[in-house]
Amino acid sequence: xxxxxxxxxxxxxxxxxxxxxxxxxxxxxxxxxxxxxxxxxxxxxxxxxxxxxxxxxxxxxxxxxxxxxxxxxxxxxxxxxxxxxxxxxxxxxxxxxxxxxxxxxxxxxxxxxxxxxxxxxxxxxxxxxxxxxxxxxxxxxxxxxxxxxxxxxxxxxxxxxxxxxxxxxxxxxxxxxxxxxxxxxxxxxxxxxxxxxxxxxxxxxxxxxxxxxxxxxxxx
Length: 220
Hints:
By secondary structure, the chain is of the alpha+beta class. Helix content is 24%, strand content 25%. It has helices at 15-37, 64-81, 208-219; strands at residues 88-97, 109-110, 115-122, 128-135, 141-146, 153-161, 169-170, 176-179, 191-193, 197-200. The strands form two sheets. Strands 1, 2, 5, 7, 9 and 10 form a six-stranded mixed beta sheet that branches. It has a four-stranded antiparallel beta sheet with strand order 4-3-6-8, with no helix packed on it. A hairpin with a 5-residue loop joins strand 3 and strand 4 (128-135). The radius of gyration is 31 Å and the shape is elongated. The chain starts with 14 loop residues before the first helix and ends with a helix.
C-alpha cells in the first residue's frame, strides 16, 4: 500500500514529472561531457594563396554546445510554465449519535480528535490502492488534500476511531461515505464534500424521547 499522503504540502509536481526532468537533465549533461571531453576536430585552415583565400567561417560544430544547452533547459522551462494542478479537497464531519437514532439529530454532538481515513480500491480486484488519514478539529471537521487522480477506483471516507469513551461504536450505515476523487466526471469544483459520519453513544441522553418524537410526528 502506498504511504499515507501528507496534507502539509498540498502543492507539488507529480513524481513522474520530476523523474522525467531528472532523466532529461542527466542525458544532456552526459552529452555535454562527451562533447567537451572528445579530441578537437581539425578544420581546414585558410589557404596561404591570397587568390584562393576564402572568408573563414565558424564551424557548425562550434554551435553544438549552445544547442545542447538549450535542449537541456527546454524540459525545465516547460515544467515551470505548466500551471500546478490544485489537489482535490475532501471535507466532512464526524458526530456522536447521542440518542441512538441511527442518524444525525439536533441532539447530536460533533467529535473533536476523531480519526478518519480515505481509502481507494481497484474496481475489479478491490485491492487497496491509496490511503490517507486525518483528524477532526474542534468542530468535528476533517480535511484532506488528494493530488492523485483515482478515476478507475472506488474511494470512501471511513471512520477509524473516536476519542470519546462513551461514544466509540461506529453507527451502522453511517460509518463510511463515498467520495469521487477524479476530475474526469464533469465536476468543475476541486472540493469534495463527504456525508457526515457518526459514532453511537452507549446510553442515550435524557431528553432524547422528545427529540425522536418529532420524527414520529413527522412520519404520521
